[in-house]
Amino acid sequence: MENQFSLTGKVALITGASYGIGFAIAKALAGAGAKIVFNDLKQEFVDKGLAAYKEADIAAKGYVCDVTDEAAVNQLVAQIEKEVGVIDILVNNAGIIKRIPMVEMSAAEFRQVIDVDLNAPFIVSKAVIPSMIKKGGGKIINICSMMSELGRETVSAYAAAKGGLKMLTRNIASEYGEFNIQCNGIGPGYIATPQTAPLRERQADGSRHPFDSFIIAKTPAARWGEAEDLAGPAVFLASKASDFVNGHVLYVDGGILAYIGKQP
Ligand code: NAP
Ligand code: GCO
Predict the structure, then answer these.
(1) What number is the average pLDDT over the span 86-109?
(2) Neighbours of 180 (CB within 10 A)
(3) Which residues of 96-129 are buried (b: 16+ CB within 10 A; e: fewer)?
(4) Which of 53, 63, 158, 190 is catalytic?
(5) How much distance in Å is there from the Cα of 228 to the middle of ligand 2?
(6) Are 168 and 215 in contact (CB under 8 A)?
(7) pTM of the model
(8) Is residue 259 among the annotated active site residues?
(9) What does the alpha-carbon distance between residue 196 and residue 93 come to, in Å, rounded to a whole number?
(10) Across the strands, what pairs with 90?
(11) Topology of domain 2-192+226-258, per CATH?
């Protein structure tokens, strides 16, 4: 059974993985034996990530690449295939959020979120699938969200993107399943990372941010998730253990989607 979860000899590309959820998933995949490759927007963050991987005793390779730039992504994939090997596992993790009331959001801001959170997973998946087919199969894991299922104020672009990413996941599964490519999603709940730091900031009087208290009441586990909570689910979806799981979004949310919320 241990062999079912082994990633020894596999090459894993995790996008936007200098820190946060991407970094935690990369560490987990490395722990199961995968060779780690990651990218970030700036050399400064790639270097920061390389230092963090080194500290975790992971010999990762990092590249500067904007995942929304198709030419840059195609060049990145070609460079990885030349320097490391064909990508066996792709984790489309890079993402942004803009919390702006919809009627105050510009079309440019809306498009920017869609570009990173939905168009980029399309671009990167399209770049890696041909070599996966030639190699006999592969794994694609799209990092979805509670907002793949639910809406909330100020996150219209993000919810539209993550809802679309759920359907892109199902479509890649449908179109490439016959080539032994499994494409699944991970839907994290509310995870304590830089992206959600504004929602957890302590108030001037030292009390919890109202949204922080709200999430605690909405989560049966009564806590925010840690990026490490995603480690096991990621290894599962990257390994042989999930070879007959396709088009599924695995919600790792402490039970939020199952729960009406604690009475105030
Ligand atoms: P984060 O801390 O904001 O990290 C996002 C990463 O993506 C950063 O390394 C960022 O690079 C990179 N990135 C952004 N735009 C990029 C681009 N155009 N090209 C390359 N890299 C880019 O976010 P996180 O909380 O770890 O979230 C990671 C993923 O999980 C996102 O897709 C997010 O939507 C999703 N998610 C997060 C939560 C949560 O509660 N935190 C829950 C559900 C889903 P820079 O540092 O250079 O900007
Ligand atoms: C927000 C949060 C969420 C989380 C995550 C939940 O503003 O509501 O940022 O969107 O990031 O996506 O799954």
Answers:
(1) 98
(2) 15
(3) ebeebeeeebeeeebeebbbbbbbbbbbbbebbb
(4) 158
(5) 17
(6) no
(7) 0.98
(8) no
(9) 15
(10) 13, 140
(11) Rossmann fold (3.40.50)
Closest residue by Cα to atom 10, ligand 2, is 147
Q: Mean pLDDT for the chain?
A: 97
Locate 131 and state its tokens: 């070599």
* Ligand 2 center to 178 CA (angstroms): 33
Q: Which of ligand 1's atoms lies nearest the C-alpha of 115? A: 18
Q: What integer is the mean pLDDT of 139-145?
A: 98
Ligand index nearest the alpha carbon of residue 219: 2
Structure-token match 């596992």, residue found:
89
Cα(first)–Cα(last) distance of the chain, in Å?
44
Listed in sequence order, the DSSP H helices in 115-185 are 120-135, 156-176
pLDDT of residue 243: 98
Determine the number of helices (DSSP H) and then strands (DSSP E) in the chain: 8, 7
Residue nearest (by alpha carbon) to ligand 1 atom 34: 95
pLDDT at residue 257, as a whole number? 98
Ligand 1 pocket, residue 16 CB under 6 Å: yes
Residue 264 clears pLDDT 90, i.e. is over it? no
Banded model confidence at residue 210, pLDDT cuts 50, 70, 90: very high
Q: How confident is the model at residue 244 (pLDDT cuts 50, 70, 90)?
A: very high
**Ligand 2 binding pocket includes 152 (Cβ within 6 Å):** yes
Q: Which residue has the tokens 């840059």?
A: 72
